[in-house]
Amino acid sequence: MAATKIISIRSTEADAIAYIANPEKTDNGRLICTFGCSENPVRASTDFEKIRAKGTGRNKILSHHFIQSFSPGEITPENALQVGIELCQKFLGDEYQYYLAVHNDKEHIHLHCIFNNVNMVDGRTFETHADQGDKQNRKWVNLRNMSDEICKKHCLSVIENPENSKGKTYYEWDMDRQGLSWKAKLKFAIDQVVKESNNFEDFLQKCKARNIEVVYNPEHVIDLKFRLAGQQKFTRARTLGWYYETKQILKRIDLYNGIIRTPEKSALIDTHSEKMQSSSTLQNWAEIENMKRTSKALNQLTQYTEKDRESIEKKLFSAHTQIGFWVDKLNTLKTEIDDLDVKIKIAKKVRKLKPVMDKLKTLSGREKRRYESENQTEISAYRSSAKQLKELFPTGSVPTPESMEKKRNALAEERSIKHDEYLSMKAKVSELEKSRKTVDDYLRNQRNMQKKRKKDDLE
To answer: Disulfide: which of 71, 145, 335, 392 matches 179 by Cβ 3.0-4.6 Å?
Structure first.
């Protein structure tokens, strides 16, 4: 999640700018942006000093330094630079010189910004313009709020409650704002826990920490059930979809932790079976056939990557990670589609039963009571559905079923296209895995045969 902090610089300003401008941290200066000053760190400090010399009064603070950090894997360095520029424009209003640099030398992308304490427009200090209430707190709150606003715009996670550091992505924030079906909320909550878990046991513990009750019994057919805080009944993992069943959750956790567990069947013929061992003719045939299949596998490997084993492993890891991301995209689209299905169904029910309620409003006295008695089921269903619709759209602005269906169909079409691309990628990875396994098995068999020949020679 994006986090910010700000500190004041009272000396060694040039050294501070030189540190954030380090070519090894900024891709040889590619990830640097300045406003009103030079990209050369020493000259930038001199440019700052020239403005300070024209300022009003004397101040011990030379400049300020703020840092914005992002979650690992959440943003690219280029996008972080764009976010930083937007934050500087909003926070400093093109009134202060600044030196902005994105660092990509650590697991998490983060940016540094050093800006002059003296305003270029009126020569006053930053503290003077922010002198309302507690100055330090005022500066921090303004920066943090602006950072959060920009991060939400770019669909990045933010710290909703700084005191307990619990982050919320823009998607979650937006869904909470406009209302969401309980099933979609539960699926989304589970997705977040999966991404943070080290293993399945850790997943179960983190679910409890996130107010998701879990019942896991591997001996039962229905081995996994969830219940979100406020939900009356437990929901079977299978009801949420195959993506939330135990086996899939295990695979997803592995993918997020860089673990590849995809045992593929080898294309080689098993020469250790009793049938093969009893016939030298079959053994010779199998060995020649395995050589052919291994040669074919090597050709397939060179089609995708080098023969070097380490390089193959890196390519495979990258491919499996991409598959994990594709599955996440498909699942997110599925969640949105399912959620719209729920909303469409309720909205149509309300529309269908509305004439009953409209007529009820025109009646009074004994006639109204008789009508209520005769249409009790419909009236109760309308009130229940209308209440659900109000919970899903708390602002009161409810889209028509037709507009929601149009959006749902567009999402379904997008998901269909992405699913075809996912299957194509998965097929290539499966072929690559099988080829690698075939080559490994052949080389291992060759080593075993050499050992056996040496042993026979010694005897």
So the answer is: 392
